[in-house]
Amino acid sequence: MNMSKYTIQTHDKSNGANCTPSATPLKVLVVEDDAAMLRLYQTVLPTWPLLLDVAFVNNGIDAMFKMRRMQPDLLVLDLNIPGINGLKILKETIWQAGVTSVVVSGLDEDRIHDLGGIPSGVEVLPKPVPFARLLAIAQRLSAAKNEATQQVSA
Q1: Other CB atoms within 10 Å distance of the CB of residue 20
Q2: Global pTM value
Q3: What is the pLDDT confidence band of residue 154, given thresholds at 50, 70 and 90?
């Protein structure tokens, strides 16, 4: 089992300031079975100007267990993974409130449709991963999460 979890506190590259200590980490679960892609995620995510709590798993079975324990804000999911495939994971977890799912796949649209299709509301990104687009999604979610946290504590 190749699973790791860590918290990343990054710096805002534009002004050198740390993320605010009161910020709530964005919980991210990355499900990817390709070792090179997994290393790429592990290299790129720490450079993001966000406070992240990230877990990585390399198969569908571990992903299902981790989803239940972690309750991520953002699920980044490859479709073609061992164990339970990504489409099955999406269909099993789409009901979970507060989880934004993003599929990152090398499969073309026709093949994805043949496999059962992607539930509505799930963004599909191609491989190689467009990290700028993924970062924009994470930033939007992080801002919304921190705003909601501030409203609750106010």
Answers
A1: 10
A2: 0.85
A3: low
Which residue segment(s) compose the domain that 73 sits in?
4-153
Tally the domains of the chain.
1
Distance of alpha carbon 146 from its chain centroid, rounded? 17
Q: What is the mean pLDDT of residues 7-30?
A: 60
> What are the Cα distances from residue 129, in Å, to 3, 9, 38, 147, 148?
20, 22, 11, 28, 29
3-state secondary structure of 53: strand
CATH number at residue 44: 3.40.50.2300
End-to-end, the C-alpha distance of the chain in Å comes to 42
Burial of 21 (0-12, 13-18, 19+ CB in 10 A): exposed
